[in-house]
Design goal:
4-stranded antiparallel β-sheet; 11 strands; mainly beta; 7-stranded mixed β-sheet
């Protein structure tokens, strides 16, 4: 059983930056993969970025070069640093954690990129 709590969303102007955080209720030693999804109104859920327990990262083409996923094991926290934000990045962002065959989800945090 893992609980995930996201924070860091908000309103930002195009070209700005935000850092999303996701705090897990248990040690990352038991979590194989963590990542971020996002879902915009009227759109399908999109996988933005993932990171494995070994530190391997993957990004969606739309995020590559602008977003950075990282994890802090001591703080049991997952991060998504988002730079050069665009209006099309507007969405609810959800963190997830995969443990063997189970996947756990956070409640989501709203990111709005607008002038």
């Amino acid at each position: 059983q893992v609980q995930l709590v996201e924070s860091g969303g908000g309103l930002v102007q195009p070209g700005g930056s935000l850092r999303l955080s996701c705090v897990a209720s248990r040690s990352f030693f038991s979590i194989n993969t963590m990542g971020w999804y996002r879902q915009a109104p009227g759109e399908q859920r999109e996988l933005v970025a993932t990171i494995t327990s070994g530190g391997t990262t993957k990004y969606a083409d739309s995020a590559k070069g602008r977003f950075t996923i990282s994890r802090d094991d001591a703080k049991t926290t997952l991060y998504l640093q988002m730079n050069s934000l665009k209006p099309e990045d507007t969405a609810v962002y959800y963190c997830y954690a995969q443990i063997i065959f189970s996947t756990y989800w956070g409640q989501g945090t709203q990111v709005t990129v607008s002038s």
